[in-house]
Amino acid sequence: MSRWVIFNADDFGASAGINQGIIDAHAKGVVTSTSFMVTGRAAEAAVEMARDHPDLSIGLHWDVWGEDERQFDTRNLDASREELYRQLDEFDRMFGRAPTHIDSHQHAHKSDHLLPVFKEIVLPMGIPLRGVSNLSYVGGFYAQWEWKVTNLEYVSVEFLQKLLREEAPEGWTEFSCHPGYISDDFDSIYLSEREEELRTLTDSRITDYLDEQGIQTGSYIDYQKATNSTSLN
Questions:
Q1: Is the dihedral of CA 29, 31, 36, 37 positive or negative?
Q2: pLDDT digits over 126-161, tens only?
């Protein structure tokens, strides 16, 4: 069995800088998919940019908190269910189709109380749901594992090569990432780190290493095609 990796960039639509960083990471690097925030202040601009990049898979990044500037009680399951339906409808309005995959900001959907709601709604749609679908997930490519403490080693070329070597088994694996540029329309504790992620994701040493390891990159669209093909055989 082959080894396939989906490089998925979170937060598409959050800001002008993040939008451009994700597009650059796709056009000039290894990013194959992204997760889109219908709540983002640069959401409409992201939709326009995506039209020029049809090979970029775009899923829904369910978001109710933003960068901690909004309050939402996810334990109100009726409100959470309604908000998931609303964001799915908004995604369809903006792109004219369903998302290629679904995940959430700050991994909200993985909480014990919310996961059943997401499974109930998403799985019958046949859309891959992060942490539930039949593919592995790697979130180690991230530079801030302690609150406001940055360690760029964890988004370096060498560390990503290590992750690819050790955590990309046979089959399909999603590697999440957060590339972007700093821009005036977005404030977060995770800013300069995004630019460092972008440098790594567009470094030719990563594509060379993928070839060396025999790892192929694909998108969520490719994953769904492969999964459907296997189920028909």
A1: negative
A2: 999 998 988 999 999 999 999 999 999 999 999 999
d(CA 167, CA 140): 10
Tokens of 149: 């403490």
CA distance 156 to 152: 6
Whose CA is closest to 83, among 66, 64, 104? 64
Cα–Cα distance for residue pair 83/209, rounded to 1 Å: 41
Rounded Cα gap, residues 76 and 69, in angstroms: 19
Residue labelled with tokens 């399951």: 77
Of 150 and 230, which is predicted with more confidence?
Answer: 150
The sign one gets for the Cα dihedral 22, 67, 61, 48 is negative
Q: What is the DSSP letter of 145?
A: S
Q: Are 129 and 116 in contact (CB under 8 A)?
A: no
pTM above 0.70, yes or no: yes
pLDDT tens digits for 63-89? 998 776 778 899 999 999 999 999 999
DSSP strand pairing (136-138 vs 171-177):
parallel
- Tokens found for residue 118: 């997401």
Q: Report the 10 Å Cβ neighbour count for 78.
A: 8
Pair of tokens at residue 191: 């800013």
Phi, psi angle pair for 29, to nearest 5°: -140, -145
- Going by their DSSP bridges, the two strands 102-104 and 57-62 should be labelled as parallel
